[in-house]
Write a structure and sequence with these properties.
The protein contains 19 helices and twelve strands. By secondary structure, it is α/β, with parallel strands linked by helices. The chain binds asparagine (ASN).
């Protein structure tokens, strides 16, 4: 029986894969902490021209870790995801220019404040809007999960504007600079730094910031007291010997271009491509690895679901239908957040972003594959099965030798289509901080503000890879057919 042979092999394969992916790294001698951060939040957190993370937060963290003898694995991503990961224990701490306030104290334990901040309201440079009242009915851009967004929401009650959410500060700024949104709210040091570096925006309340307060390092409430104590000790020590002042000076008395090199760089398409060659290559490689693994594993999983879908047992058929229904119905990003941010809190094991991303793709693309595989088998004329059976072939052999080969041929175009969709879907995983091609593009734009050129390059790379994938699939198709 075909099912009998394939089922256990596939189940074993998935079990082995699951175990390998969930296995946790071995503990090192010095404590190693997972610290999340905002991927683009200059002057606190951003990348230099070599794609190294720098900024006030990064320098403080590095110095504190050295003095307090701990190591850390840095996870840059959207601020909202970075904060969630710490709130539910997936990561140990977050340093992301994060404001200390009472709501956050309910969820996190907080370090001594290491910087003073407050919320600015911001419009396009030269905008005719002069007061918050004039925002009535207009759209205001906010960044998900931030203290500035909370402040913006309070103002909304009073001034009646509409809200549009973004995941990162640069895209949000650009929405205002382009005139799509009328205003935004963001922490003063961050907008001041962007304006100094040429962002065409203006701060409307420089002397009257909202919710002024400190910026701190956060850990999950009731956990990681040791890490928090180490941070506070380390911070006191760098404050005392002047290292802290040097760090602040380094970032606030200079231009961003000094770090990112973009002013000196040639910002033509070719120049951007050349100066970010290694970043693009790394991003592309991550996209390819994810795509190839996802295509193989999702196809196997989908074929299994499809075969189950035409089983003689109604239980097996029902299981397949339910799985397909559930995972085809969920938006990919919801599934990714659920696996990466939600699940670990329940199962008590951290899931690395790559594993979570791959699992998301397998479950989602596998469900689509399952549906067309089932359809493909059903499309094989029932006379084929009857003829095979009347020739004396048992059900399994008839399936394997007669129905499946014909069904697979019908499905080939659908497979190719699904492969291309899988490749494109990897871009959604940038939301959980996987540094694939799209996330790479976001980081580069945050650095050089060359949105049009960088996204044109990223789009061209996707098209090239999709063309290669289509050629390859067509070549395989021809070989199977003739
Ligand atoms: N400043 C933000 C906050 O306090 C954090 C961020 O956007 N990185 O919520």
């Amino acid at each position: 029986m075909v099912k009998k042979k394939i089922l256990p092999i596939m189940l074993a394969l998935f079990a082995a894969l699951g175990l390998a992916l969930l296995a946790r790294p071995v503990q090192a001698a010095e404590p190693n902490y997972v610290i999340t951060t905002d991927a683009t939040y200059a002057p606190f957190d951003f990348q230099d021209k070599n794609n190294e993370y720098i900024g006030i937060d990064m320098d403080i963290l590095k110095e504190v870790a050295k003095r307090e003898h701990f190591t850390y694995t840095l996870k840059p991503m959207s601020f909202n995801a970075a904060a969630q990961l710490v709130a539910n224990g997936q990561a140990d701490g977050i340093i992301a220019g994060m404001m200390i306030n009472d709501e956050r104290k309910q969820v996190y334990d907080v370090s001594t404040p290491y910087y003073q901040s407050g919320v600015a309201w911001i419009t396009k440079k030269g905008s005719s809007i002069k007061s918050l009242k004039e925002l009535k009915g207009k759209t205001v851009a906010l960044k998900t999960g931030t203290a500035a967004a909370e402040y913006g929401k309070q103002q909304q009650k009073k001034y009646g504007f509409k809200i549009k959410y973004f995941n990162d500060t640069d895209t949000m700024y650009n929405d205002v600079a382009n005139g799509n949104s009328a205003a935004t709210f963001e922490d003063y040091p961050v907008i001041a730094y962007a304006i100094k570096n040429g962002m065409k925006l203006q701060v409307m309340n420089p002397h009257n910031l909202g919710n002024a307060g400190g910026v701190g390092f956060f850990v999950q409430k009731g956990h990681n007291a040791e890490l928090l104590a180490a941070f506070n000790r380390g911070f006191a020590s760098i404050k005392k010997d002047g290292t802290y002042d040097k760090i602040i000076n380094k970032y606030l008395n200079s231009k961003q271009s000094k770090f990112t090199g973009d002013a000196a760089d040639n910002n033509s398409m070719w120049g951007i491509l050349r100066s970010n060659k290694s970043a693009f290559m790394k991003g592309l490689w991550e996209t390819i690895v994810l795509t190839v693994l996802a295509i193989i594993l999702a196809s196997l999983w989908g074929i299994l679901l499809g075969v189950m879908g035409i089983s003689q047992s109604k239980w097996i058929r029902g299981t397949s239908t339910t799985i397909i229904y559930a995972f085809r119905g969920l938006p990919l990003m919801v599934l990714a957040f659920f696996i990466y941010i939600g699940l670990p809190g329940v199962i008590g094991t951290k899931i690395p972003a790559f594993t979570a991303g791959l699992l998301t793709l397998i479950l989602n693309e596998g469900a689509y594959t399952g549906a067309f595989v089932r359809g493909g088998f059903e499309a094989v004329d029932s006379g084929q099965m009857e003829a095979a059976r009347s020739l004396g072939l048992p059900y399994g052999t008839a399936m394997r030798k007669v129905v499946i080969p014909q069904g697979l041929k019908i499905m080939i175009p659908s497979f190719i289509n699904q492969f291309i969709i899988t490749l494109k879907d990897t871009s959604i995983l940038s939301a959980i901080g996987i540094l694939e091609l799209t996330q790479t593009g976001t980081l580069i734009v945050a650095r050089n503000s060359q949105g049009f050129r960088v996204w044109a390059i990223v789009a061209a790379i996707y098209l090239i890879v999709i063309t290669l994938l289509t050629w390859f699939s067509n070549w395989v198709q021809r070989r199977i057919k003739y």
